[in-house]
Write a structure and sequence with these properties.
The complex is a heterodimer of chains A (354) and B (220). By secondary structure, chain A is an alpha/beta fold. Chain A has 17 helices and 10 strands. Chain A has a single domain, classed as TIM Barrel. Chain B is built from 9 helices and 5 strands; from the N terminus they run H-H-H-H-E-H-E-H-E-H-E-H-E-H. Chain B has a 5-stranded parallel beta sheet, with helices on both faces. Classes of the chains: A alpha/beta (354), B alpha/beta (220). The interface between A and B is medium-sized, with 26 and 21 residues.
Chain lengths: 354, 220
Amino acid sequence: MNDMMNIPEDNQTSLERVLCYLQGKTPQRIACFPLILNHAARVLGIPIGEYNRNPELMGKAHIAAYRRYGNDLVLIFSTTSTLAEAMGTKLAFFDEDAPQIDVPLIQELDDIKKVIIPDFSRDGRLPCYLEATEMAVQEIGAETCVSTVFAGPLTTAAALRPIELFVRDLHRNKERVHELLEICTQSGIMFIDEILKRNSLPIIVEPIGTGSLISPRHFREFVTPYLKRMADHIHAHGSGMPAVLHICGNSRPNWKPMLEADWNIWSIDSPVDIGEAREIAGSHVCLVGNLTTTNLLKGTSAQIDEEARVICEKAMGSPGGFILGSGCEVPFDTPPENIDALILAARKYGRFDQ
Amino acid sequence: MPRLREEILNDLADNVLNMREDLAVKAAKEAVEAGIDALDAINNGLVVGMNQAGELYDQEEYFVPELVICSDALYLGLDILKPHIKAEESEKEISCVIGVIEGDTHDIGKNLVKIMLDVSGFEIHDLGRNVPLADFVEKAKEVKASLICLSTLMTTTMDSMATVIEMLKEEGIRDQLKVMVGGGPISQAFADSIGADGYASNASQAVTVAKNLCNVLTTA
């Protein structure tokens, strides 16, 4: 409690705090984005398998999570394969886990012809995402930033094709990969429109573009041009909303081609050094990150506080802005007090009013 | 005029390293025709190229797709050369069971470790992904494994690694083998906390750790 006594009360709502970043104003303190995704089901006390298929429960879970934690970003999400699912990949569902890819659509290269842009009112769980989005925006959209998260073109393409074949296609069947990425990009842009229509912030995750997997050369060839189109679309039609990109793992090898794709906010994972990222980000990119998610699950509140303190030390004052967050998804069974500790750390170490 | 042994071995290595599958096959056939010992061609040709690819991966010059294509060239070459290995030459390899923990289907990392261990002289028994925990123990007993490699990318499944180690103890074979763990959420600290023998952060490091654990002298 000693900690708490020296920390000023928040005088901004969560939304006001986040809007400061977009309007070039200085907030009272930095925002905090624990990436609460499936963990929201735990807050509501429902199985993960119900959360990710029932729009009402998905919406309620995120509202409950926001009410419990006061996180500055609500993220409607279940898996990176959601768009691919709507385009024809079969997922396996579990009571207590996120869905996983079961049967990818494109077994033979010529199956690429079967891939079509999904119907957002009908296919897969797209209606579930969009209804949950509407619910969250209506209930808490005036207080906090609500976002809807889905995978970028490369990750969606990699979920439409068995991954062991897809990595070979990058070398052997480049033209077909581009053909597939084109459809994934068009679908993604339509998804962005559906999200914007509902006054939610579209966030793109591109984990297959991580430097843990593909080279900067491949990123430039297969990721940058497509992500650039999506960012341009958000800039043109997003009423001032920023283009937000999350890439997991060791993204460092691909930071330069990522910059070329023109995204305003990067959410980066714990394998990279946020101090190093700051050098690249400059005034162009606001950084979100990058607390180790395993520590959220396994560590103590004191350990979270210390790791967050070091991150803040490195990233505070970054010219493009800095938001404290988890490096990737908050693990389902993270003890709530560790999420509290992360948000408290933003209030302790991320001040602009002292 | 047949080319020198060194030239052919160099070709084998280069074609693996440079992802030229057709030429790796061609060089392997040439090695057979030139009467080069098959094990010589494998160990001092193909495997050299794959290890060089592993070094480039370590230096972030090569990434996953490059390593996969190199391994395709390697295995195509092996298909040509293996039938020509003289039976008495086959070395006794270290038996290794590898797989991705039940509940997780991400196997890119596991597959890279498998390839790099394979070319480093380990006899690999790959259980695939989403592997029921008891299968690791069963397979280890069946093949008298010296090493078990456990992989996971998910925080949801990492604790099952500890369960496998417990099961090995219950079966009374824990001290007969080494357990190496790896994957996104895994760290040296986690490996220590569950009583694993080794941890590696990537595929090429996995080879070094595995060799140390199994007391294999490094020849490179």
